[in-house]
Amino acid sequence: MCTGLSEKELYISLSQIDGYHSPKLYLEQYITPPNIAATIIKFIDEEYQDIRGKNLLDLGCGTGMLSIGSCLLGSHSFGIDVCQRALGVARENISRLGVNDVDFICGDITNIKQFFIPKKIDTVLMNPPFGTKDNYGIDIKFIDAAISVSCNSIYSLHKTTTRKHILEFGEMRKLQTNVLAEIRFNIDNTFKFHKKKSVDIDVDLIKFEVCD
Prior knowledge:
Elements: H1 7-14, H2 34-48, E1 55-59, H3 65-72, E2 76-81, H4 84-97, E3 102-106, E4 121-126, H5 138-149, E5 150-159, H6 163-172, E6 176-188, E7 198-209
Parallel strand pairs: 1-2, 1-4, 2-3, 4-5
Antiparallel strand pairs: 5-7, 6-7
């Protein structure tokens, strides 16, 4: 696997990833835009060395944008998602891109202890549901799941409007918590109730460091 990709080359590769064929609203199935995924993954790799050569877990991986992107930069990636159909698309994506070092697992992350993950996890990178519809609190459940399996760093995307809540949760769990970047996140018209072609929302990239 080539690990010397530039951000532009990574973006070009990730642009080939298919999204959800029939997205489910209750699962908040929005694909992470490939330009944002490429920028985040390169940033984490270059600034924190938490991608290349690491065992990485993508919770709520969907069709594989973050787990595949990380693998393209040299991680061994595991992706967990509750939607078997999304994982079917993810497997088609790795086949198309010729990526071999990604394992996908179907299951509910809120019961993550049921999964056998054969390698120690160094890094968690995830774009969890924002919890803004009927899923209030699901973002916190994703962080809890990440804490239970990560021995080092967790990188997670959350709506900027929830920043205070997320930081307070990190403090309560005695995590070192930092907002690394505020990102303009573009979501395409995905569901029937969407009136606009796309909408931009402000999203934080937050790092949680798990201390022994």
